[in-house]
Amino acid sequence: MKAIASILADGFQPSPLQDFCVADFNSSVLVNGYACMDPKLVKADHFFVSGLHLDGSTSNPFGSSVNRITVSQLPGLNTLGLSTVHVNYARGGVVPPHIHPRATEILTVLEGNLRVGFVTSDLDENRLITKDLREGDVFVFPIGHVHFQQNVGHGNVSVIAFLSSPNPGVITVANAVFGSNPSMANDILAKAFQVDKTIIDQFQLHF
């Protein structure tokens, strides 16, 4: 059993075959990620980025801002299975229900009070797993699960999180369902949500 578990783990996140693989954004080679830059051309700046500590603007409908550091901003992350975000929330601000299709996320509250949660799969009856966090608390969102965060305190909230992919991706549920391009047929959505088509039309106008 231990050997099988090891094989499964290695299959999900393979071990590097070299010291590093700095992303070559100019390469025309198509791989699962980015092609590797010639190691002889690699410099310290390929492994460095600044500004994660800066607070973003929360003057938007969600009342939150997400400062992402993925392989796109830090090419040295390529193939290393890691990225990070710094999130700010105004009072009442949210990061709406979303999915990271390629990463588990572990979040630490730096300041304030934050409600977090994720929904289990249909195999576990779509249960909501939720917790109110304070400064210094840590919470993990399993890969592929719909999850959210909400500022439930009286002041601002700041968190830092790490994700187990250099390019974790984000699928915001409402955007994906009502804002796809081209639009998903409203009769499909009407049946899915058990509402009239006119209600679906109204939702789609917002996205």
TrEMBL record:
The protein, known as: Germin-like protein
Native source species: Escallonia rubra
Pfam families documented for this protein: Cupin_1
InterPro entries cross-referenced by the UniProt entry: Cupin_1, Germin, Germin_Mn-BS, RmlC-like_jellyroll, RmlC_Cupin_sf
GO cellular component assignments: apoplast
PANTHER family assigned to the protein according to its UniProt record, in alphabetical order: GERMIN-LIKE PROTEIN SUBFAMILY 3 MEMBER 3 (PTHR31238)
Residues bound to Mn(2+): H98, H100, E105, H147
Alphabetic keyword roster: Apoplast, Disulfide bond, Manganese, Metal-binding, Secreted
Similarity field: Belongs to the germin family.
Record's keyword annotation contains Repeat: no
Primary localisation category: secreted
Domain Cupin type-1 residue range list: 50-201
GO MF annotations in UniProt: manganese ion binding
Subcellular location: Secreted, Extracellular space, Apoplast
UniProt binding sites for oxalate: H100, E105
Disulfide bridge partners, by residue number: C21-C36
Superkingdom of origin: Eukaryota
